[in-house]
Design brief:
The structure is a single chain. By secondary structure, the chain is mainly β. The chain has one domain: Jelly Rolls, CATH 2.60.120. 3% of the residues lie in helices and 46% in strands. It contains 1 helix and 8 strands, in the order H-E-E-E-E-E-E-E-E. Strands 1, 2, 3, 4, 5, 6, 7 and 8 form an 8-stranded antiparallel beta sheet that branches. A hairpin with a 7-residue loop joins strand 1 and strand 2. It is globular and about 40 Å long.
């Protein structure tokens, strides 16, 4: 992987090329921009409008997410093994980590800007 300096505005939204479960899941979902290169890093910048529903899904890679702005109602499909809440609401300046293979989804409560980083190429599978 080469050193990189990337401006979000210089990257085109990926939304049109992202796999979705159907038209209903794509409505109001916002935009996502890939900031990495062919061999990483796997970093994405997303803007999501209030009311956007991110359906239950999982990745083959661990995911770290930092909520720059907004508010999210986050939920795991199954109660976490560590006893943490299955559902939680959080706002700006919050970081979350989801282990590979864990199924989760969320609802955007207030317009949000999100920085997402994966440990390796993420892949996605809808639950």
């Amino acid at each position: 992987m080469e050193n990189q300096v990337v401006r979000v505005a210089d990257r085109e939204p990926l939304s049109a090329g992202l796999e979705r479960r159907g038209d209903a899941d794509s409505v109001g979902i916002g935009t996502t921009r890939f900031l990495g290169g062919e061999d990483g890093p796997w970093v994405y910048y997303s803007e999501r409008p209030a009311g956007a529903e991110i359906p239950m899904h999982q990745h083959r890679s661990g995911r770290t997410e930092f909520l720059i702005e907004g508010e999210i109602a986050f939920r795991f499909a199954e109660p976490p093994e560590d006893g943490s809440p299955q559902e939680t609401v959080y706002g700006a300046n919050t970081m979350t980590y989801v282990k590979p293979g864990v199924v989760y989804g969320y609802t955007v409560l207030r317009d949000s800007r999100i920085l997402i980083s994966f440990d390796s190429e993420p892949g996605i599978n809808y639950a």
